[in-house]
Design goal:
alpha+beta, 111 residues, elongated
Length: 111
């Protein structure tokens, strides 16, 4: 399969990727990854090995698209979400100490 990574064309096959990654120890995964065999590799590590280019020359998205088209599983890093507001964080926003105590005790707030 022909793909372009960092503006350079590459002819990749699933067997070729498996052969290139054979014996390569995976680095710790902190973001996007590619599952090759039974191992999880960071997308940038896979791209570096396959293209022999510096990791700064391509994005992990380019590697993920190519690997997904070859049939590899590519789980992406979960999006950062804001934590839901809990009762304690909601009461912490109340400035008046009497209202805050009432809220912590479960009493209805005064208007």
């Amino acid at each position: 399969m022909r793909c372009v990574i960092a503006r350079f064309p590459f002819e990749l096959t699933k067997a070729g990727v498996l052969e290139s990654m054979k014996g390569v120890k995976p680095e710790p995964v902190t973001g996007d990854s590619v599952i090759i065999g039974r191992r999880h590799y960071p997308a940038k590590q896979v791209g570096q090995i396959l293209t022999r280019q510096d990791r700064r020359d391509f994005s992990s998205g380019e590697v993920l698209r190519a690997m997904a088209r070859l049939g590899f599983t590519c789980p992406t890093a979960p999006e950062a979400t804001e934590p839901a507001e809990t009762a304690e964080t909601a009461t912490a926003k109340i400035v008046d100490p009497v209202q805050r105590a009432s809220a912590l005790l479960g009493a209805p707030s005064s208007v």
